[in-house]
Design a protein that fits this description.
Blueprint: E1 15-17, E2 20-22, E3 29-33, E4 36-37, H1 60-64, H2 66-75, E5 82-85, H3 92-95, E6 100-104, H4 107-113, E7 119-122, E8 135-141, H5 152-162, E9 163-174, H6 180-185, H7 189-197, H8 208-217, E10 220-230, H9 235-242, H10 251-263, H11 267-287, E11 293-302
Parallel strand pairs: 5-6, 5-8, 6-7, 8-9
Antiparallel strand pairs: 1-2, 2-3, 3-4, 9-11, 10-11
Length: 304
């Protein structure tokens, strides 16, 4: 089976041609790009940035990493048609649900995702080229924090539109935390943007409470709303954030970076160090304030 494609502008069912798709109503033409239907222009920032397929499906890492464990447990035994927003190279856990469609703005990533998903589409989150009620599940991981604040409501409206009544939408969303390290980083706005916001395009961060309220205002009923990653970072992320011009500005941050350098000196050390961080996060997520969360895990239902 294939989920039919519709015109993002007028929602008419598209006609396939040898070179792409054409809308019979408004006349819009959407080309194939290396065999992938493309509804948006290529974005150089994202093109090929996260293009490695993830074939894991119940690995030790899946169970240790909280956001991966969340999807693994909540989708276990579920069946239906699934849409993965900002899919990158795709993930076997999502593909196991049923017919999975990968959507991204990187064609290179989508070519890789074809190893995991039977259908891929290059399109914008705010104008999904699918019919109303086409999906039982809409998911994303590390994506919605990249969406500008002024666009988020349109994205949620599109998720609502393409979900079936009673369908579920599950996400890991990067959040605007207020833990001590981030509060320190914000004292230097130029460095904060240079080393924390811009490298991965996190231009649309919100607090956990703002994220929850936005979904609820869009009509979604919460099953789970969980602030996570409170106050701790994996060692590679510590170096990405602070092993730079932040050095010398705070004694304790410098020592944190020194420790991160030790743990990232060898792949085996980094794996072991990150396991320790994952275990510490299980404690931190229970004792630190929700406002410190660097992300949220959510599971919502369309309708009452």
């Amino acid at each position: 089976m294939q989920v039919p494609l519709v015109c993002p502008s007028c929602r008419a069912r598209l006609d396939e041609t040898p070179t792409g798709y054409r809308c019979p109503d408004c006349g819009a033409v959407y080309p194939f790009d290396r065999g992938v239907p493309r509804f948006v222009e290529v974005d150089p920032f994202y093109e090929g940035r996260w293009a490695r397929p993830d074939f894991s499906r119940g690995s030790l890492r899946n169970w240790l990493v909280k956001k991966e464990r969340f999807f693994l447990k909540r989708l276990q035994g579920q069946r239906g048609v699934l849409l993965d927003l900002g899919c990158g190279g795709g993930w076997a856990v999502f593909a196991a649900v049923g017919h999975a469609v990968g959507l991204d703005i990187s064609v290179t990533s989508l070519l890789a995702a074809r190893q995991v998903y039977p259908q891929v589409v290059c399109a914008s989150l705010e104008a999904l080229p699918f019919p109303d009620g086409a999906f039982d599940f809409v998911v994303s991981s590390d994506v919605l924090g990249h969406v500008p604040l002024g666009v988020k409501d349109r994205v949620l409206a599109e998720i609502w539109r393409v979900l079936k009544p009673g369908g579920r939408t599950l996400h890991y969303i990067e959040a605007d935390g207020s833990d001590p390290a981030i509060r320190f980083a914000r004292r230097y706005p130029g460095l904060f943007r240079k080393y924390i916001i811009e490298p991965e395009g996190h231009i649309g961060l919100e607090t956990p409470e703002q994220i929850f309220k936005r979904f609820q205002a869009a009509g979604f009923r919460p099953r789970v709303e969980l602030p996570v990653y409170r106050g701790l970072l994996y060692w590679g992320r510590v170096r990405q954030y602070f092993d730079n011009e932040y050095r010398g500005k705070n004694f304790w941050v410098d020592r944190w970076v020194d420790l991160a350098r030790v743990f990232t000196a060898h792949p085996f050390l980094e794996v072991g160090g990150n396991v320790l961080v994952a275990l510490a996060l299980e404690v931190g997520d229970r004792v630190f304030p929700p406002e410190w969360a660097g992300g949220v895990l959510v599971d919502y239902v369309k309708g009452g």
